[in-house]
């Protein structure tokens, strides 16, 4: 498995408030998805899609401690992760390691409501940033 085998899926946008982001996305031609609470991650999420633009996942804090609290404590809005689909999580992590990249697990794999129960996990790739790995069915 090579990292180039990963398929880009979306960009993750952390927001305190979504009003202006929704205006911007709609102005760009995005279809705004339904806002959903993901209790496993304690975030409100929605997927926004447009024909000629990358998908954008809007992420906002849920009730209580949320994985984006640190991000939105510094920034009102920030594109903070890229998501890639993988056929095999273990092989993908081995390929990252084989490239000599330092990889830190930020969130173990869990089901994601937004992606109909598919498993996701988050990693910090030093020198790159945060990636989300979305497992194919």
Labels describing this entry:
137 residues, alpha+beta, 2,3-Dihydroxybiphenyl 1,2-Dioxygenase, domain 1, 9-stranded mixed beta sheet, 3 helices, 9 strands
CATH architecture descriptor name: Roll
What fraction of the residues are assigned to beta strands by DSSP? over 45%
Whole-number average pLDDT?
96
- Tally of structural domains: 1
Q: Quaternary status of these chains?
A: single chain
C-alpha Rg, in Å?
A: 15 Å
Detailed description of the structure:
This protein has 137 residues and is an alpha+beta fold. It has a single domain (3-135), classed as 2,3-Dihydroxybiphenyl 1,2-Dioxygenase, domain 1. It is 18% helix and 47% strand. It contains 3 helices and 9 strands; from the N terminus they run βαββββαβαβββ. Strands 1, 2, 3, 4, 5, 6, 7, 8 and 9 form a 9-stranded mixed beta sheet that branches. A hairpin with a 7-residue loop joins β7 (103-111) and β8 (119-125). The longest helix has 10 residues, at 89-98. It is globular and about 40 Å long. The protein starts with 6 loop residues before the first strand and ends with a strand. The relative contact order is 0.22. The mean pLDDT is 96.
